[in-house]
Design brief:
The complex is a heterotrimer of chains A (622), B (250) and C (175). With 622 residues, chain A is α+β, with helices and mostly antiparallel strands. Chain A is 59% helix and 13% strand. Chain A has 3 domains: 1-52 and 287-417, no CATH class; 69-263, no CATH class; 420-622, no CATH class. The two termini of chain A are 38 Å apart. The chains are: A alpha+beta (622), B alpha/beta (250), C mainly alpha (175).
């Protein structure tokens, strides 16, 4: 009992004394934890789950059939596997305009009474009525229209009566992506040419889904824009049979009509579901890559922060051992403090991640997802805490073991590890100008610290290169580098990806900046005595500062260069066929990172030389 | 006030304050001092009396709050940081109580360092370092790391380092503070030697034995000089009197 | 010169007067310069009277330098006893201490000035002794003796430092 009390006292007092460092540690770990939480939340609320929910709420179909004539419905409806159906509903094609934006639409004519299969679930407003249209939710978001707004459809005005989600269509802008095609020779994710063969309006993948009254749909048709499509929704006896149903009912071989296939086309619910999943795929990749990077940066930050106080820990360890603690207890207490902070950071990260999760995890407006914060599963929470503890452990385990193994008297007297001697480097440096002499020797004294600095920079550059590649990839997908379609609507998938990317990028930059500050500040403070000695021997302050910059650049440059291929690898691992960032951006990143490191070193270095030499010499021997 | 014509170092009204208002601590209080060329001056006093601070001010390692400092007829208390660095480089050598050698450099490399800082070629620096190590009696230890040297040897290396750029004066702050009796004797011998070769030496010490090597001894208390004793010329008594041989009790 | 010292110098073998003095000079080094020849012989005379030493005059007119001195049995016993003693020379600080007290009480002189003057003298002596020590080869008998003298002077100087602090505080308190 006494041991626990002692541990508690020591840990709390130490944290209070070094509050700023404790806070920094918590921030470093919390950032990684938050990202991980968001990633796991996204994992938990997959579109698959949401699709199921949407299907249940809308009485979603197992098969959606696109007919070229209403009469084709009879055979299908009476097929033995079919247990329920709705339709056939006439589809008119047209152009919708709102607030300066235009888009092509797939206008389904519906009855005002609820359908037996595929009754879209209203998330706002009410169902179709004369003069009123219902917009699919993703499309409504892209168009920017809300309930009550007035839109123009083929020149006629309609009011937006409601906004709904459906399980019968993939979300905007993937209208035709759910369609299965009868065989090879037909391209996927392109709408069949017969959809609108006689019309001036061309239906493309990025047409929007809307519903209106049957009368209104029929009214939209004209001789120039005849009805060519009817939608039939089918429910089958056993859901898994959707594909075999298709195999039986597709017209094979295709009937030629000017060389184009013409006949009913189908979409299965599985196909539609997988299209929904696409929305989150890239985003998930981004989040996972981001979490990995942040975890690495986190470990690096914690290592630097903990490493700074090693000699103090060693002394405390020695005292504890001198009063009779066993090495195991000593190591445990050393770890305890950092683990406590890690736990706290995990909690903070979980909270932040949970609150921020809706930003990235709402599975697309197309599906039902909790509008507020998604429920965080216990498993996910445990995973996040586990990762935070692992990060802390990774950084503190080696010093803890070493501290426990040190002989008691050596620890109390704090016989610091003497710096390594590199005879060749010392000889070479004596031929170089004084700042380089100092910088080189300083780096050679603590090769492990130099390696850690290099690793920090490598991880930072790795992250920036990956992020830049993601940006380049997104840009190339849109061609012009804009997220807007020709009609002025934003692509929700891309927009969501960009949003997530932006969040990750900001967190990456913040953590990398923190990391850079820790590392440079640590290097300068640890070199305080050596710097003071050089000044005492007649080196100018400017030479000393430059020397410290040289030390940092010696680690930063190789680190940055190594980070580039690693960043590419990470990007490729996350997004299997993406475009890499252009070399100019990469070169710029490397130079900018080294330059920032140099500046971040220069500031504390300059400030350090303001301290009188004698004070600095009296500080702990490095 | 005219100092002695051969004064290498002149201190006038030197003051160093720390803190402000109620918390003001005057570490050095209006000190006037002259050090002649080739003289060995010892500064003694209880701990906290400001003798180390005085030495740091003279050596350009700290800035005075007020007063004048003249080295070789040149005013040095108002110099820029850069000029002060040059001063430390060429004109003043400093020996610290804690030696402050670089642990990863050999004795020779440690001694070379100020020469390299002063811009001399590596070859020149090496030669000068070896010559000085020979002079302090450590020629056979030139390739040793400080960890392999005794306290007295390390301090001798530090002294050699202070001499490598042929300074006008060497300032030593408690040079035997961390040494045992035998090592102290090594260092004392070296100081006598250097003094004999004409070097100007200012030594801060609390060890009377070290002070006894000086020509002149000043005492400090609470930041001010309170006493001065001329030691050259020795005592009026003969050596034998020290053991009282003439007393014949039976 | 303590009698026992002279006795001990004869313990190895009987010696002539000049040999005895030479042996003592060797052991004292530069400090031996002050050794008064006469004192040694006076002591030898007393020892002979006390029956601890016998004197043999060699043939011919013998000056004291050539006489042969040797220990008697009693003398040897005395030496053995002296070697086994663990007394240590008494420090005689009381005289100086009383000097200060008296001067202060009678108002005859400023005790601090007395202390300062004594400090100066001791410092000079320390300087002389130390120089002599450093001039001697390491490990020689004389160097060892000189080191002892140096260290004692240092101890005495430390006490004088304490005296100065003490008397200064007293003066400050009394206004």
């Amino acid at each position: 009992m006494g041991k626990v009390l002692l541990a508690y006292r020591l840990v709390t007092r130490d944290i209070r004394q070094h509050m700023s460092q404790a806070i920094l540690l918590v921030i470093a770990i919390a950032a990684a934890a938050a990202t991980l939480t968001m990633g796991l939340a996204m994992n938990g609320v997959t579109s698959q789950n949401s699709y199921e929910a949407t299907r249940a709420a809308t009485k979603g179909p197992d098969i959606v059939a696109y007919l070229t004539a209403a009469s084709q419905a009879n055979t299908l409806v009476h097929a033995p596997e079919v247990s329920g159906s709705s339709g056939p509903y006439p589809v008119a094609y047209g152009t919708i305009a709102f607030d300066g934006r235009t888009a092509a639409v797939f206008a389904e004519g519906r009855s005002q009474a609820p359908a037996a299969v595929d009754q879209p679930y209203l998330t706002a407003g009410s169902w179709v009525r004369p003069g009123g249209v219902v917009l699919e939710r993703t499309f409504a978001e892209a168009l920017g229209a809300r309930v009550g707004d007035v839109v123009t459809l083929n020149g006629r005005s309609f009011t937006v009566a409601g906004v709904a989600v459906t399980a019968a269509q993939p979300p905007y802008p993937n209208l035709c992506s759910g369609l299965t095609f009868p065989g090879p020779g037909y391209s996927s994710s392109a709408c069949p040419p017969w959809f609108n063969i006689h019309s001036a309006n061309v239906v493309t993948d990025d047409s929007g889904q809307i519903w209106l009254t049957e009368a209104a749909a029929l009214g939209l048709a004209s001789t120039a824009n005849p009805l060519t499509t009817w939608v039939l929704n089918l429910r089958l006896d056993s859901q898994a049979d959707a594909q075999s149903f298709l195999d039986r009912h597709y017209l094979v071989p295709p009937v030629a009509d000017g060389g184009n296939f013409r006949g009913p086309m189908f979409a299965t619910w599985q196909g539609i579901a997988s299209e929904d999943a696409v929305l989150v795929q890239d985003g998930q990749a981004i989040l996972e890559a981001g979490a990995l990077l942040l975890a690495l940066l986190s470990i690096a930050s914690v290592t630097v922060l903990v490493g700074r106080r090693l000699s103090e820990y060693a002394r405390r360890v020695g005292l504890l051992k001198a009063v009779g603690s066993t090495p195991g207890l000593v190591a445990a207490m050393f770890l305890a403090e950092n683990l406590v902070l890690a736990l706290f950071a995990a909690g903070a990260g979980l909270l932040v991640g949970w609150l921020a999760a809706p930003l990235v995890t709402s599975p697309g407006a197309a599906l039902i997802g909790a509008p507020g914060a998604p429920p965080l599963s216990a498993v996910a929470a445990v995973e996040v805490v586990g990762v935070a503890l692992a990060v802390s452990l990774a950084a503190t385990l080696v010093p803890a073991i070493r501290a426990a193994r040190t002989s008691t008297i050596a620890a109390i007297n704090d016989v610091a590890r003497p710096p390594r001697r590199r005879g060749a480097l010392i000889k070479i440096s004596s031929r170089l100008p004084v700042p380089v002499l100092f910088g080189l020797r300083l780096a050679a004294r603590r090769p492990r610290r130099a390696l850690l600095s290099a690793a920090n920079v490598a991880v930072t550059v790795m992250g920036i290169v990956a992020v830049l590649s993601f940006h380049a990839d997104v840009d190339s997908k849109l061609g012009a580098g804009s997220t807007l379609t020709a009609g002025g609507l934003s692509d929700p998938v891309v927009a969501r990806d960009e949003q997530m990317l932006a969040v990750i990028t900001i967190m990456l930059i913040v953590l990398a900046a923190l990391n850079a500050v820790f590392t440079t500040w640590a290097t300068v403070t640890d070199a305080r005595r050596a710097s003071a000695l050089m000044r005492a021997l007649g080196t100018r302050s400017g030479q000393v500062s430059s020397g410290l910059v040289v030390t940092q650049v010696l680690s930063a440059l190789p680190g940055a260069i190594v980070g580039v291929p690693l960043g590419y690898l990470l990007f490729r691992a996350a997004v299997h066929h993406g475009t890499l960032a252009p070399p100019l951006w990469i070169a710029g990143t490397v130079l900018a990172t080294v330059a920032v490191t140099a500046v971040l070193t220069l500031v504390p270095a300059r400030l350090g030389t303001l301290q009188p030499v004698t004070e600095a010499l009296a500080s702990e021997a490095a | 006030m005219n100092g002695p014509p051969a004064a290498l170092l002149r201190v006038r009204g030197l003051r160093k304050d720390y803190g402000k208002g109620d918390g003001l601590v005057r570490a050095v209080d209006e000190v006037d001092l002259d050090v002649a060329r080739g003289e060995t001056l010892a500064v003694m006093g209880p701990s906290g009396c400001g003798k180390s601070t005085l030495l740091h001010l003279i050596g350009g390692l700290d800035r005075p709050s007020a007063g004048e400092l003249w080295l070789n007829d040149r005013r040095v208390d108002r110099l820029s940081e850069r000029a002060l660095a040059d001063l430390r480089r060429r004109q003043i050598g400093f020996v610290f109580q804690a030696f402050h050698l670089m642990d990863e450099l050999t004795a020779r490399e440690n001694v070379e360092l100020p020469a390299l800082v002063a811009g001399r070629s590596p070859g020149q620096a090496r030669r000068a370092a070896l010559a000085l190590l020979d002079r302090v009696g450590l020629a056979d230890r030139a390739g040793h790391l400080p960890a392999a040297l005794s306290g007295g040897q390390r301090q001798r290396v530090a002294i050699a380092r202070a001499l490598v750029n042929e300074p006008l004066a060497v300032l030593a702050d408690e040079p035997t503070g961390n040494l045992d009796s035998a090592s102290t004797i090594e260092v004392l011998r070296l100081f006598e030697n250097l003094h004999a070769s004409g070097l100007t030496l200012v030594i801060v010490t609390h060890d009377e034995r070290v002070a006894a090597t000086a020509d002149r001894l000043v005492s400090m208390r609470d930041g001010a000089l309170v006493d001065e004793t001329r030691l050259t010329g020795g005592s009026e008594r003969s050596l034998g009197d020290l053991i009282g041989l003439e007393n014949c009790d039976g | 010169m303590q009698q026992e010292v002279v006795l001990a110098m004869l313990a190895k073998e009987p010696s002539q007067g000049y040999q005895l003095r030479a042996r003592m000079n060797d052991a004292l080094g530069p400090l031996g310069d002050a050794l008064n020849a006469g004192q040694v012989y006076v002591t030898l005379g007393r020892l002979e009277k006390a029956g601890l030493v016998t004197v043999d005059s060699p043939a011919g007119p013998a000056d004291r330098e050539r006489k042969v001195y040797s220990l008697t049995a009693a003398g040897q016993e005395r030496v053995a006893g002296w070697l086994a003693e663990v007394s240590w020379p008494k420090p005689d600080l009381a005289e100086f201490h009383l000097k200060l007290v008296a001067a202060a009480a009678a108002g005859l002189a400023d005790p601090i000035s007395i202390v300062d003057a004594q400090r100066r003298e001791l410092l000079r002596r320390l300087r002389d002794a130390q120089r002599a020590q450093l001039a001697e080869p390491d490990g020689s008998d004389a160097a060892l003796l000189l080191e002892g003298i140096v260290l004692r002077l240092q101890a005495d100087l430390r006490w004088l430092e304490a005296c100065e602090t003490n008397w200064t505080t007293r003066r400050r308190r009394s206004g």
